[in-house]
């Protein structure tokens, strides 16, 4: 019996794009980390609920800068839509097992209808709904979306698509 035929190999292939653009991978990952570091410094510990959505936004802005969802209109507009829906659903008394999936579906619908598709903004809608986010956090979310959009705008000629 040939056991070698049944052995699993755990070889991690390195993307060919990485071999050519490794400096951009390091630079853009570092820029995303710096952006999130600034966000963490600004937010209080009890307001960290928004960090996951903003981390996903930073990934799109710095790793996929040419994607439609990385454009300022989508980043800012998507998070505004997510904020508005999260606040609206927070005010409505619906059992969570209906409310959470419903807000996801409606957020997707609204963002697509308004042409501001930004997947992490669905996380913003859920975060606002689940955590009763205060007015200062709402302004912080918008400020972060604007900051990441400005980074995208000013660095657009220096960023490469990494995925």
Question: Outline of this structure?
Answer:
The protein is an all-alpha fold and 163 residues long.
Describe the structure.
The protein has about 160 residues and is mainly alpha-helical. The protein has one domain. The protein has six helices and no strands. It has helices spanning about 15-40, 50-65, 70-90, 95-115, 120-130, 135-155. Helix 1 (about 15-40) packs antiparallel against helix 2 (about 50-65), helix 3 (about 70-90) runs antiparallel to helix 6 (about 135-155) and helix 4 (about 95-115) runs antiparallel to helix 5. It is globular and about 55 Å long. The mean pLDDT is about 90.
Biggest beta-sheet profile: none
Uncertain regions spanning at least 5 consecutive residues: none
Counting helices, strands and paired strands, the structural category is mainly alpha
Number of strands: 0
Query: What's the helical proportion of residues?
Result: 55-70%
Q: Radius of gyration in whole Å, from Cα? A: 19 Å
What order do the SSEs take from the amino end to the carboxyl end, as H and E?
Answer: HHHHHH
Strand content: under 5%
> Count the helices. How many?
6
Mean pLDDT: 88
Shape: globular
How many distinct domains? 1
Task: State the end-to-end distance.
Answer: 41 Å
């Amino acid at each position: 019996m040939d056991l070698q035929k049944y052995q699993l190999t755990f070889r991690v292939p390195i993307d060919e794009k990485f071999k050519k653009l490794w400096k951009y991978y390091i630079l853009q990952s570092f820029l995303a980390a710096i952006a999130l570091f600034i966000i963490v410094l600004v937010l209080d510990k009890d307001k960290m609920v928004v960090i996951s959505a903003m981390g996903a936004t930073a990934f799109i802005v710095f790793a996929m800068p040419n994607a439609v969802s990385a454009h300022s209109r989508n980043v800012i507009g998507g998070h505004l839509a997510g904020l508005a829906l999260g606040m609206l659903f927070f005010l409505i008394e619906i059992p969570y097992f209906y409310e959470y999936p419903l807000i996801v579906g409606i957020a997707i619908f609204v963002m697509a209808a308004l042409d501001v598709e930004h997947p992490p903004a669905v996380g913003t809608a859920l975060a606002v709904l689940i955590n009763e986010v205060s007015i200062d956090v709402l302004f912080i979310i918008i400020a972060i979306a604007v900051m990441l959009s400005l980074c995208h705008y000013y660095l657009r000629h220096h960023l490469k698509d990494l995925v």
